Amino acid sequence: MTRASLLAHNCRRSKYPEDRYVVSKAAAVERHLVNAPQNDAGPLSGARILVIEDEFLIATVVEDVLKRAGAREVVIALSPREGRAALAAAEPIDAAVIDIQLAEGTDVGFALAEVAFKRSIPIVFLTGYESDLALPEPFSAVRVLTKPCSPLALIQAVNEITSGANAAEP
After folding, report:
1. 48: phi then psi, degrees, rounded to nearest 5
2. What pLDDT is attached to residue 106?
3. Residue 12, domain extent
């Protein structure tokens, strides 16, 4: 079963209407990416990017988008514990894409973002919250992408923070 068909299957089984919407959008992105080659010379060429997202299917779609944009490696953390471990690892991380609300607790993504800031890792929030979300300090300058977002918006946001343009400072 392909990831796109798995996404569509889970979309039909979800009891939450908002999940069906997010998953159906993710499935559409996945179908678009199936035949796209990885771009070693893309805008994210050589970057090592951490994705902290508790929804496996969304995390893997984000991974595919970033790899096709040239990311050397995409590390997926599916829980706050995995996120903390990845942020504490010795190998450098060029950027992090963080979901604000993870399954283990409301707004735990902010705590992980603080850890990233302490390590000088630029971040982008990818969240199901509304786009007019007021971020607490010190995150007011961090870019927020609302799920579902287009692959192009994700690539542009990560490219901006990895190239230093509009990167939020801790």
Report:
1. -110, 115
2. 67
3. 3-162
Q: Give the tokens for residue 115.
A: 């850890």
What are the pLDDT digits (tens) for 58-111? Answer: 999 999 999 999 999 999 999 999 999 999 998 999 999 999 888 766 678 889
Is 169 a member of any domain?
Answer: no
CATH code where residue 127 lies: 3.40.50.2300
Separation in Å, CA 130 to CA 65, 74, 105, 125, 163: 22, 26, 18, 12, 27
The amino acid at 86: A
Total domains, the chain = 1
| Bridge partners for 2 per DSSP | none
Which tokens sit at 98? 């963080």
pTM for this model (two decimals): 0.74
Residue 126 counted as domain residue:
yes
Q: Could you tell me how many residues make up the chain? A: 170
Decide if 99 is inside a domain: yes
Show contacts of 23-26: CB within 8 Å, 24+ apart.
23/57, 25/147, 25/148, 26/57, 26/58, 26/61, 26/148
- DSSP code at position 11: H
3-state helix, strand and coil shares in percent for the chain, rounded to the nearest 5: 45, 15, 40
Pair 138, 122: CB distance under 8 Å: no
